[in-house]
Specification:
With 223 residues, the chain is of the alpha/beta class. 34% of the residues lie in helices and 17% in strands. It is built from six helices and six strands. Helix 1 crosses helix 2 and helix 5 packs across helix 6. The longest helix is centred in the middle third of the chain and has 22 residues. The model has no long low-confidence stretch (mean pLDDT 96).
Length: 223
């Protein structure tokens, strides 16, 4: 076995537009997961991993109807902790945290999401990369031990961006430059070449399985 392919997928659309609430998929998210599962059948997936947040678990379970492999949850694959922004609407975030958004969008420093006593764990990209990379290392170890050449990993947009930045040794403040819109169930493929001990990024945010279903694209979601 020369390489291990890891297919990172953002979860399907969740049933709430509030920031990072732990909720199930809506009907369009379930459709996205169905289409992703059908597509992944051609990639020889030997194991499925997901974050332990409900939307990621449900996406993985729906996909796995077509793959019929073991599904394991890893908390390290969770979405970035948005701190005080968690549970807020987009409008509330823009009103309350305009200064934070302005600073973040300068791409000059890897600033963490705002925290207070009620929401103390706002993360930055470096912190997310550390825990997510530890999860990826667990996945690689399992794949090498059991000769599994391909794994599907359901995670979150912020986490996938942090992983890409870390793997490519980019400043984490530039992670938002990966895909202005990270589509739900979009596929990002990273291949680990065993002899070289190195990752190669093969594709980012590939959502061709959704292109015949424009109603499932994020630009067409209604508020």
């Amino acid at each position: 076995m020369e390489k291990i392919s890891i297919y990172l997928l953002r979860h399907g659309r969740q049933n709430s537009r509030l920031c990072n609430v732990n909720v199930p998929l809506d009907e369009s998210g379930k459709c996205q997961a169905e289409l992703a599962g059908k597509r992944l059948m051609q990639y020889g997936i030997g194991i499925v991993y997901s974050s332990d947040l409900i939307r990621a678990v449900e996406t993985a379970e729906i996909m796995n109807k077509y793959l019929s492999v073991e599904h394991i949850c890893l908390s390290g694959l969770r979405e970035i902790d948005f701190g005080c922004l968690t549970g807020l609407t987009d409008l509330e975030i823009k009103k309350r945290y305009a200064t934070f958004l302005e600073e973040r969008d300068k791409y000059e420093s890897d600033i963490p999401f705002p925290s207070d006593e009620g929401s103390p764990n706002g993360e930055n990209g470096a912190k997310v990369y550390k825990r997510a990379k530890e999860a990826i290392d667990i996945i690689l170890e399992r794949c090498m031990k059991e000769n599994i050449e391909s794994a599907a990993v359901v995670s979150h947009g912020g986490t996938i961006r942090s992983l890409l930045a870390g793997i490519l040794d980019m400043p984490q403040e530039h992670r938002l430059l990966f895909a202005k819109t990270m589509e739900n169930t979009g596929i990002t493929q990273i291949d680990y070449h065993i002899n070289k001990k190195r990752f190669y990024v093969e594709r980012i945010n590939d959502y061709s399985h959704l292109e015949n279903h424009p109603e499932l694209l994020r630009k067409n979601f209604k508020s």
